[in-house]
């Protein structure tokens, strides 16, 4: 009896492990140029469920370009983008299961913060009850309650950044790409965002582009670093020294 129980437990453990670590998103041979200027050449990578990835590199190296090619906001010259939904290469932004949260806030001038959140919930087919619960959860976590009736144009940069992040978290997509999410946040807000990103890891795969090595170090399982000799992958403990060595230059 004990052996049967143990075997069943072992099988369940192995299945959970396989499901938990399955590949959510695969990029094959990504090639992107602007005119004759090649930004990314033949880059491939597999991203897994439940992991957070950090994109690190100097200004203008191509981090935003990669994220936008993945989610469909930019058309690569060549690439295969494969997710649980299948081959997304020919799907546009709305049909991909990948959400991109830009560092440049995009919003409707005539909708309040709260209305933006409800709009996202509507797009994602939340029930009234689910929407209420999810909006309360994120606004409480990120202390946004007092801004719910504000128009976004009246928000400070950090508060706007939190609104954009909540809109990303409310999406029910398995892949979330965050472009410079830590910009403009004071230390308290920064810690809250780090905490919530850490919790979101249970629900999805996240890819974060940032120059804030300390914040990335608190969160990421793997790092994709642009060095002088191309893109390297690193999964150890990261700090400024390690980043400088990988980039082959004094970066941070
Ligand atoms: N629409 C465009 N047309 C031409 N060149 C572009 C265009 N968009 C970006 N670039 C160039 O491509 C390169 C990569 O830009 P990208 O924004 O991806 O860099 P990044 O690594 O995200 O930079 P940062 O850290 O400053 O955000 C830059 O040199 C940029 O000038």
TrEMBL record:
Keyword Cell inner membrane: no
SUPFAM superfamilies attached to this UniProt entry: P-loop containing nucleoside triphosphate hydrolases (SSF52540)
Protein's recorded name: ABC-type transporter ATP-binding protein EcsA
Organism: Blautia obeum
GO MF term set: ATP binding; ATP hydrolysis activity
Residues spanning the membrane: none
Residues in ABC transporter domain copies: 25-250
A Pfam cross-reference name: ABC_tran
Keywords, sorted A to Z: ATP-binding, Nucleotide-binding, Transport
């Amino acid at each position: 009896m004990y052996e049967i129980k143990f075997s069943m437990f072992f099988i369940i453990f192995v299945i959970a492990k396989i499901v938990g670590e399955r590949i959510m998103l695969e990029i094959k041979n990504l090639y992107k140029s602007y005119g004759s200027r090649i930004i990314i050449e033949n880059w491939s990578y597999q991203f897994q469920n439940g992991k957070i990835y950090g994109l690190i590199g100097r200004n203008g190296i191509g981090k935003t370009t990669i994220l936008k090619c993945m989610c469909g906001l930019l058309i690569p010259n060549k690439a295969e983008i494969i997710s649980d939904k299948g081959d997304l290469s020919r799907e546009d932004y709305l049909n991909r299961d990948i959400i991109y949260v830009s560092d440049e806030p995009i919003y409707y001038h005539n909708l309040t913060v709260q209305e933006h959140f409800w709009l996202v919930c509507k797009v994602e087919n939340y029930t009234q009850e689910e929407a209420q619960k999810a909006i309360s959860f994120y606004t409480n976590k990120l202390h946004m309650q007092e801004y719910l009736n504000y128009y976004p144009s009246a928000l400070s940069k950090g508060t706007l950044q939190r609104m954009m992040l909540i809109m990303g978290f409310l999406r029910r997509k398995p892949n979330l790409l965050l472009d410079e999410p830590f910009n403009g946040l004071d230390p308290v807000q920064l810690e809250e965002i780090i905490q919530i990103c850490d919790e979101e890891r249970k629900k999805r795969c996240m890819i974060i582009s940032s120059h804030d090595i300390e914040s990335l170090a608190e969160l990421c399982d793997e790092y994709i670093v642009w060095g002088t000799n191309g893109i390297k992958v690193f999964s150890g403990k990261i700090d400024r020294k390690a980043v400088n060595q990988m980039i082959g230059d004094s970066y941070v």
